[in-house]
Amino acid sequence: MASPSIQWYPGHIAKAERSLQTQLKRVDVVLEVRDARIPLSTLHPKLDQWLGDKRRVLVINRVDMIPAAARDQWQAWFKSQGQVAYYTDANQGTGVGQISRAAQAAGVAMNQRRKDRGMRSRPVRAVVIGFPNVGKSALINRLLKRRIVESARKAGVTKQLRWVRISDELELLDSPGIIPAQLTDQAAALKLAICDDIGQAAYDTQRVASAFVDLLQQLDAAQQTTERLQALKNRYEIAATECTGETYLHQLAEHRFQGSQERAARKLLQEFRKGVLGKLSLEIPPALDLPKSSVESAVDSLTELSQTELLPNAVATAPV
């Protein structure tokens, strides 16, 4: 079996993950934050194992970056799975108040048990957990109503665990992003790279940008729409309906960047991440999902690479 093309597991995450599993014993409720553009790919596969029966509040952040119709589809899907999802734009503070109330409500049973044993009530202890760059620190800053936790739209900003008191009723543990030590699902890894939810050292920018265009084509085809491809045409004046992602990137480079495909790739991904292309979702709820073969074809150019073709195929490390 060929080695996965995209891997990223920096040293500070490995260390913090071990500390997090110890701290989870002290936690009453878990605020699980996911990226609204890729809510399935930002579900950590080991989370159920780590959390057991702890109360969870599912936060779908960056809802401002997807169309309202996509939000409605996901809301219906999560409901069908027996889950309540809270939608937020942590940068602007939209929907954040409901998260605090949900966390405190989840701690009511805990304090009732303490009261029954003759113990005094204490603040609810919550942990904010999720992949890198999904907006965990921005959410905490909004809950605090002041900037106390470093926050930026790039992966790997938070490097250690930290407790912060929100109020007399709520304490939060901010943690670095968690990510599987081995990204075995390369379709998910591609989406993480596109959304900047893993470090840039983990992937080849041109190949990810090309696969991004391929993915937009497949998503539009699956939903019988031209919404995503029209966003590309509106921005770059180049149609993406009759070409591969690789060809599109070449055309964009010739049209805008004096033939530099690297500059074209960086600009394409950057403008998607900043919302310049408009509101675009990169996943469809499973009932409406793409056939597996279609998703896999979006990463063919990545998975066919040898280890020597990608600079960062080895596991990245970072200072703690």
TrEMBL record:
| Residue ranges occupied by any G domain in the UniProt entry | 126-186
**Domain of life, per lineage:** Bacteria
> Does Transferase show up as a keyword for this record?
no
Signal peptide start and end residues: none
Write down any Gene Ontology CC term: cytoplasm
Q: Does the keyword Coiled coil apply?
A: yes
Gene Ontology terms for molecular function: GTP binding; GTPase activity
Q: Which residues form a coiled coil?
A: 215-242
Compartments in which it is found = Cytoplasm
Report the protein's function: Required for a late step of 50S ribosomal subunit assembly. Has GTPase activity.
Sorted keywords for this record are: Coiled coil, Cytoplasm, GTP-binding, Nucleotide-binding
Q: What is this protein called?
A: Ribosome biogenesis GTPase A
Major localization class: cytoplasm
Q: Which InterPro entries does this chain map to? A: GTP-bd (IPR006073), GTP-bd_ortho_bundle_sf (IPR023179), GTP-bd_ribosome_bgen (IPR019991), GTPase_MTG1 (IPR016478), P-loop_NTPase (IPR027417)
A biological-process GO annotation? translation
Q: Which organism is it from?
A: Phormidesmis priestleyi
Q: Which family does it belong to?
A: Belongs to the TRAFAC class YlqF/YawG GTPase family. MTG1 subfamily.
Listed binding positions for GTP are N61, R62, V63, D64, G177
Q: Which Pfam families match?
A: MMR_HSR1
The cross-references to NCBIfam families, in alphabetical order and at most eight, read: GTPase_YlqF (TIGR03596)
